[in-house]
Amino acid sequence: MSDPATTDPVADNPSSLTSSPAWLALTDLQAGLAGSSLRQLFADDPERSERFTIDAVDLHADLSKNMLNDEVLTALVSLAEQVGLQAKIDAMFAGERINTTEDRSVLHTALRKPKGSQLEVDGADVVGPVHTVLDRMADFSNRVRSGEWVGASGKRMRNIVNIGIGGSDLGPLMAYRALASFRHPDIQCFYVSNVDPAHLLETIKPLDPEETLFVVASKTFTTLETLSNARSARSWLVEGLGGDLAVVAKHFVALSTNADEVEAFGIDTANMFEFWDWVGGRYSVDSAIGLSLMIAIGSDAFREMLDGFHQMDEHFRTTPFAQNLPVMLGLVGVWYRNFFDYPTHAVLPYIQALDRFPAYLQQLDMESNGKHVSKDGSTVDYETGPIIWGEPGTNGQHAFYQLIHQGTTVIPVDLIGAIDPADDVGGQHDFLMANLFAQAEALAFGKTAEEVAASGASDDLVAHRTFTGNRPSNMILTQTLTPSVVGQLVALYEHKVFTQGVIWDVNSFDQWGVELGKELANSIIPELQSRTEPELSHDSSTNALIRRYRNNRSRD
Ligand code: G6Q
Q1: Positions marked active-site
Q2: What pLDDT does residue 13 have?
Q3: Does ligand 1 lie within 6 Å of residue 171's CB atom?
Q4: Rounded to two decimals, what is the model's pTM?
């Protein structure tokens, strides 16, 4: 019998994934490539930059600066085939209940199906209702944009304050910033999410309530942060407009699946734009949750964005894996996460308008694939979702790129650029793009000690100025950042995340990990609010922190 103290249950009972032929083949290939370098791969195969590129709709992706060769590519595709990726893709698009822990379909792809198409789920078409809501949103947006929709005192709406959090905030906020050059000139959107009162107060302080429309975005309409901010906003509005609650009708709309709670809050359901439980929060920017964005950019541009999503959906659904961009980005990510053990992945847009895209992807990816059990509840014996992070270039270059170039951890990166800027001044766009290309080159090929010495560096500095290279990047280029391209980019990453979730056999569509903190906060709120000393039964650290807060706060 083996000694239980020295037995590794994972090593002794590898899962069907880690003991599968494709996984074992990739393990061998990684060992074979470990001594190689991107310099070597490029020297051996001068055509790799043509062969390892993929064009998908309006995105051109160069994957050649990755530790990939033809054998690895074939083995990665075999891995996708082995886990039945195509059947899983088809199941999602068909509306099967692939979100097993919540027993739901996952149908964000139905939100962007063209008008007139159909998809039956549980005996009912879902595409018709999607377009009914889109048409209502378009009608409402047009009225706000034209000034036909006026507030309680007859003034047009110039400030749109979206109150929501997580999936009900990050998507519209990211896309609103991404599409800055398409915005209505006289309308500004603001996004309030944090329950920290400073977020709401700082946002509304300069606004005129007469010209302010609040869009309360919450799938459940029970979220503490959103409901608290919405109540405080309502008080501010009513107070600012003379104290009559009736003003809410002209200054509040709701985006939700929960008509009862919307009504209970005091918003007429005639001013509610609905969506459905088969739209996950982090997959909802293309649902009614996008209303603020539609008001900003107009319904035509919003529909162009949806069309971009749909084109990428079709690319994902129908393209063979080796030329399928979301699939390949997913597989390359698995290659680094599981076979090179790289723990993080950075997304670095060289497009200032995409400044919130990394934050958006952080939620999309980490909430979807940050799981340690597979779909059947067993603990996985392989790594799952990486830590996603990033900032726009070139700012990151003057901050954290040092570690990416010379640190002890290798960080694969996605670099995103546009050939034409929304606007240029002083030819700066060329400087931006030169930096983008230079970063990919420097990361991949580095600078050897010989090259450093030859450039005249003193002996004591050679090691410091040497770059190892071999730091992989995916380069994603587009012509220009249009609404369609924003849709394509979001769908690209949604499907990349899906691909990885299928390989790792996790449910990418639940988020139980956010529950425990919420539950505990709900139990602590009354303890902070209690007039009398509450009996605390947390651990000693939490008890002491609560007492310290109660005893030292300045307000009663
Ligand atoms: C996303 C998550 C989460 C959610 C927020 C807001 O997939 O479920 O980020 O979007 O918790 O939830 P509500 O929209 O229900 O307020």
Answers
A1: 367, 398, 518
A2: 77
A3: no
A4: 0.96
